[in-house]
């Protein structure tokens, strides 16, 4: 081989390097631009992982001993969120203690402080509000269902069909309070943020005033559910938590820090934790 | 330089029949059948699939992961040709770029069907959530598909139709367009090494992240383990190169004889064999460790359950271990075996194994889920059967892949023609 082709190759490369830098610059510019757009959409969504101290931090306490398995919480939830029978944000199942006693476990979204669904969402459609509620932006969701796979509590439900009819639970258990969601997005329990937000604005106290309290809490005939501000020592939930000797949270070993607490069945020994945990 | 293209024929009685048109017709039928399913899915939504809230990812995700994995030879050979500068691999490298492009475009297509909101497919590019593995994968795949297109375009543009077609003389604007394209192809070709580095970076990032997609699911069982990222990268390189070997033999020994030497093909097989064996070595250690450290009661229960169900344990020991170990060894010894029939037969298994690894990773953690009883958790087995609409869409994207490959194998100029004239 003569020298010439090699020189040509070198010249070629120096050009390519300069152009490469140009392209890289243009790409960085484009990337910065998308961030500006992004900020416009998700501005004001300060992540509330460290909700301690200022502002409310909503939580729920469910007394398993009081639950009679009537499913009213599920029905009220379906009515206010206008859900068909197959869509359940709040599930009630029958489980057994280690001594073989059956009990009812009702399971809304745990509103984890360190929520796996929030970490995996590729478009920021599900996020943790500063007040601790894990909620959805149905306009952003692309329906990839990664959050559903990541959720260790199986509380996310996908909207497989287009729903047009009213929920069969209307009007016995309530009336729809939220706008309909499109087909193909992920849905979930929001602690009835549509009740909490306007309620707080009007000076009501969620957990005390029924208009500002989640529908499932209001619907419970045995008052097994207590809702309120975990940061406020005077709230009903804080008082209940301080007087209860044992409370548990589901799958606590996964470090998701759920904000739904349970009072375990009396039949269990008081020092119990999760078996083997 | 002229190249010979032999028609693919089979003997039927006394006649030699050219099967190429029949094959293309079959693929077109596959695409037409797929379009029926595609219409169903887009008009009625994902309710027509067999997916559920318990098993939200199924056949399509497996195809998506497998298509990306089997495109893994593109970055491997980008490094071999452009960075290690092993010139004799250049022509095989062109085929690798083609496989990469086909794999990634197939993956993009099937993902579109899998989204609940297909028209929002661009959201991850605009609404960044940098903690999400899926976001990173989307960005990498979008960027890498661009890189692959830039690598493939010069190869396509070397076809005489773009430089020597009689119309180019008759219509001056076509000549101008041809010159412009030629300039572009030259430019892109000169970026080769840069594109190889970008391709390598993007590929390592997202191939690993595809594994990590499952690793971060701490609440799920068995194969959702911490070494999944390494597994995914290595099995993509191994399985992708095994597929490249198989198709190289089809293209360069059967359809286009004389383009490359047999020794080069043996080397491709050896590269594949080596990577496959390395991958399975790490996998077996990982299996041992995963079974050892399943401290979480629910995860341990799921693992135990899956190990006791024969399809899953068989698919692991036979599909993932045996189907990698034996052909990996044969392919590593390619220079001694020197028999293309044996080597081709061996190279099919790692491709199958690569797909199976994806199926198992995706499926095993979803199929066995736990109840939420805080005291006596039990494992429930879910079920998932793909519907005909899912198979139909699968037929669409696989037919697209095969059609793209078949046409390229027949018409793509693998030897550079303009190269000689310019130098």
List the helices and strands and how they pair.
The complex is a heterodimer of chains A (277) and B (423).
Chain A: H1 4-42, E1 58-63, H2 72-80, E2 91-96, E3 102-107, H3 116-120, E4 126-128, E5 134-136, H4 146-150, E6 157-158, E7 186-187, H5 193-201, H6 215-219, E8 225-229, H7 236-243, E9 260-263
Parallel strand pairs in A: 1-9
Antiparallel strand pairs in A: 1-8, 2-3, 4-5, 6-7
Chain B: E1 9-12, E2 15-18, H1 20-44, H2 59-70, H3 73-83, H4 90-114, H5 123-126, H6 133-157, H7 167-170, H8 172-190, H9 192-215, H10 228-255, H11 262-292, H12 297-308, H13 310-332, H14 334-337, H15 340-367, E3 368-370, E4 379-381, H16 388-411, H17 418-422
Antiparallel strand pairs in B: 1-2, 3-4
Number of domains of chain B: 1
Bin the helical content of chain A.
Answer: 25-40%
CATH topology of chain B: Formate dehydrogenase/DMSO reductase fold
How many structurally independent domains of chain A?
Answer: 2
Question: Strand sequence of the main sheet of chain A, in spatial order?
Answer: 8-1-9
* Fraction of residues in helix of chain B: over 70%
Order of helices and strands of chain B: EEHHHHHHHHHHHHHHHEEHH
Largest sheet of chain B: 2 strands, antiparallel
Q: CATH top level of chain B?
A: Mainly Alpha
CATH architecture of the largest domain in chain A: 2-Layer Sandwich
Mean of all residue-level pLDDT scores of chain A: 84
Instruction: Report the β-strand fraction of chain B as a percent range.
Output: under 5%
Question: How are the strands of the biggest sheet of chain B laid out side by side?
Answer: 1-2
